[in-house]
DNA sequence: TTGAAAGCGCTACCAA
DNA sequence: TTGGTAGCGCTTTCAA
């Protein structure tokens, strides 16, 4: 930069980085700072990390569907916590590359850590990332991946809680909404499976109900409701639950007498309906905890891989069941 | 990399980049590709863009509050569209740095374009970014910033539409909810101002109503509602509107007879309430359009700055007003 | 206290 | 058709 501002590039580096191993005279410091301000000099992160051989970048692939309430808040908290630990968080918008191929794209940025929600990253992908210098790979999803730390989030437990609750309340013919919106399979499949498991070996039965997130689709489902002979429904989440509950009520089906309805996510809005919506509350790990896991892993890449169950699910019983 | 795999680094570069100016024999290509796969070689993006002098990175600062439905979808669409144009989208989690300081942090990454939502970036910041090589800076907010392209999103028009609608329907004493949650001022202030402007010079009046996003806060407001003597309320958005409407109904206030309620954002859930929630529908530009604006600006940085009004607001009249 | 120079991984030019 | 090499901006070691 401003070697036109009197000194050598080395000196500039010393001054701007406050290198303690080297003493620079006050007048020189001042001149450097002044020149930097004047020229609007900003160091070049790529050059720096190229030289250093590592970065402080934590890469998180952007979700392939717009993040929901819960995940959005979680991500935000995480970002903040990592920032406090002096990491730079980068959400990388991977278009549609499948798992291990996406890993290559991420690896090009040479992040110090990668945090991958969902399935799709295999042991191959983890290996690519590690070889390219990532000191920590953390997956957040239903199962651990070889070579990576894992935050185990099994959405089946959400369905399981819902199913068990409905069964306990005396319901036997249970519908499970599966959103038609693509990209949600990741959550909806395990939730459905969880309900199945909860009812396995009992006299209860499970019926899969595809549903689009619009009033028409809900009305159509409601119109054929009595034909389905269901006495309860787990509606994937609170939003679908609200939609379906309204459609059922409009079709003259009384909630919870004729059909019990339960959602998930414990949104505030669910409490506003009448009857108030029962729901499965989901506890996500705090962003701070996850940030600390990442930091630990980065500082000591040799440490044994951690795997934490990290999704707490519990029923909040209100009036709709 | 694999100069241990037989050839020179230059040849590797040629092969992997499919450099057309140079012919490489088929056997050599094969050997290079094989070695690359075997070693799990991934090019180093930083080194590449250092050498090239530019990157294809579009930087978007991550929002300081978890993104809402509308913005989340917009961002997602934008990311996809930019991806199609072969840009890499990076959301940079700037912690709490104020505007122009944050610009320096962004500039370190030498993005080819920067897309900044909200206020907070000043002409200084724009200058820093451009000097550091950004070929396009696009702000998305209420007013244009010197040196940057602008997508003009004036949330005052949202409030204005709501205010005018309520006035037309014969309402005169109008409350405006202002969320207590921090980080929302960016939107709530202009919306409030818009209502004020709509009623300016009429016999209507505007009352500011702070409200937290929880049932207690809503109940407290509802309890003192009659004392406020209002006949209508614009509730910031649909979520606050749903919350408040329920609290008012629980307090025995009839909607819309005694008090009209209108929200904003046109969420699907608002249609599920009874009475159905009137709302201000907000049209955001499509992600594709914005992506094309960015691309144009990058290809021709000399072109005159574009400024587009980009927020359409129109009332969707349902039953609550 | 400061400067010269090497080298991080990559690509583009020139020579072989 | 391939290889050698300079140089992108930075930090760090070594010398002055």
TrEMBL record, chains A, B:
Pfam families: LacI, Peripla_BP_3. Signal peptide: none annotated. Gene3D superfamilies: 3.40.50.2300, lambda repressor-like DNA-binding domains. InterPro entries: HTH_LacI, LacI/GalR-like_sensor, Lambda_DNA-bd_dom_sf, Peripla_BP_I. It comes from the Bacteria. One of its GO terms (molecular function) is DNA binding. The keyword Transcription applies. Residues 1-52 form the HTH lacI-type domain. Keywords: DNA-binding, Transcription, Transcription regulation. Transmembrane segments: none annotated. PANTHER family: LACI-RELATED TRANSCRIPTIONAL REPRESSOR (PTHR30146), LACTOSE OPERON REPRESSOR (PTHR30146:SF153). This is LacI family DNA-binding transcriptional regulator. It comes from Streptomyces thermoalcalitolerans.
């Amino acid at each position: 930069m401003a070697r036109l501002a009197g000194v050598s590039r080395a000196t500039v580096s010393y001054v701007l980085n406050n290198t303690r191993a080297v003493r620079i005279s006050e007048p020189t410091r001042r001149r450097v700072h002044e020149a930097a301000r004047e020229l609007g000099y900003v160091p070049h992160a790529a050059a720096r990390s190229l030289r250093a051989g590592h970065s402080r970048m934590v890469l998180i692939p952007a979700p392939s569907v717009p993040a929901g309430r819960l995940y959005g808040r979680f991500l935000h908290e995480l970002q903040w916590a990592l920032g406090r630990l002096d990491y730079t968080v980068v959400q990388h918008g991977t278009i549609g590359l499948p798992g291990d191929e996406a890993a290559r794209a991420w690896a090009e940025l040479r992040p110090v850590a990668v945090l991958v929600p969902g399935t799709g990253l295999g042991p191959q992908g983890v290996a690519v990332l590690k070889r390219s210098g990532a000191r920590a790979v953390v997956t957040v999803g239903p199962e651990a991946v070889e070579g990576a730390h894992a935050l185990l989030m099994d959405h089946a437990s959400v369905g399981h809680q819902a199913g068990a609750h409905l069964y306990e309340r005396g319901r036997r013919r249970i519908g499970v909404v599966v959103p038609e919106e693509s990209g949600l399979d990741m959550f909806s499949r395990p939730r459905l499976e969880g309900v199945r498991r909860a009812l396995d070996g009992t006299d209860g039965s499970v019926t899969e109900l595809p549903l689009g997130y619009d009033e028409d689709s809900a009305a159509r489902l409601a119109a054929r409701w009595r034909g389905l002979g269901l006495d309860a429904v787990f509606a994937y989440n609170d939003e679908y639950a609200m939609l379906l509950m309204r459609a059922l009520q409009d079709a003259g089906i009384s909630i919870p007498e004729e059909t019990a309805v339960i959602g998930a996510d414990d949104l505030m809005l669910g409490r506003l309906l009448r009857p108030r919506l029962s729901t499965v509350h989901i506890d996500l790990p705090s962003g701070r905890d996850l940030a600390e896991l990442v930091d630990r892993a980065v500082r000591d890449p040799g440490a044994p891989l951690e795997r934490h169950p990290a999704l707490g699910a519990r029923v909040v019983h209100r009036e709709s069941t």
